[in-house]
Amino acid sequence: MQAWRVHRNGEPSEVMELEETDRPTPGDGQVLLKVRAANINFPDVLLCRGQYQVRPPLPFTPGVEICGETEDGRRVLATPSLPGGGLAEYVVADEASLLPVPDALDDAEAAALHIGYQTGWFGLHRRARLQAGETLLVHAAAGGVGSAAVQLGKAAGATVIGVAGGPEKAAIARDLGCDLVIDRRAEDIVAVVKEATGGRGADVVYDPVGGDAYAKSVKCIAFEGRVVVVGFASGSIPAPGLNHALVKNYSVVGLHWGLYNTKDPAAVRACHDELTKLAEQGAIKPLVSERVPMADAARAVQKVADGTSTGRIVVLPSGGTR
Question: Do the strands 180-183 and 99-100 form a parallel or antiparallel pair, or are they unpaired?
């Protein structure tokens, strides 16, 4: 089979190589899956760079989530077992962790449903306890993680303010359903949020960016607001001022969704049931900006690394979708 492999750490376009290799062999409790679609995530970039919290042995194949097909023809969502990631024609995955694909989604959309939307749901509902009528501020609203949070926020009945970089991404965030979009390159995030909320500020901030995004968020957070720390796509990890959190009476909560797979797998399945309902109702639909063939996977991962992508880029190893 064909698989993209990384033999040394570095930028994806420089270290990813398309190779012929043997099909993986399932171990106890595992199944072999044909990859129908593999979604690219920022962790794939970090894996290539050797900067992810999990460092698989070299060589490895990136790709942390897929829509796959079982031997009996069922479409399932899976997180392949590293070092054999999803940018391959076949993967193995733990059978107990497989989730059924919602009928409302095609292969590419399904491949983008699992990690991003699970992260958004747990962040907004389990960690931030978002309530209908509250104001939600989403950074990188046109990106893969941010676009999921926008849709989930709207589905929860929140007023959603999206932050994006540049007019093209701002237009995408608007089309996703944001009630207000801030172009961070042309507007003052703090001033716009305060004006839009009558001086109150945002009740919940969803931050996958860190750095300057976090610094501005805590300047426009509401009384009893909650900042959900999802990641640091900016490359800058902020150092929260706890005196500031005390004086302004807000919470900073971290979200490591992967821990739920081991600490509370039942909650992951319950979340998937909820996401399936929302997908069937049309309330959520992963934004797939590009569907690329296997040969273009390295370019696609590099595009995510460079921050020039919108929504999700999905690799289709077999060249098509359902």
Answer: unpaired
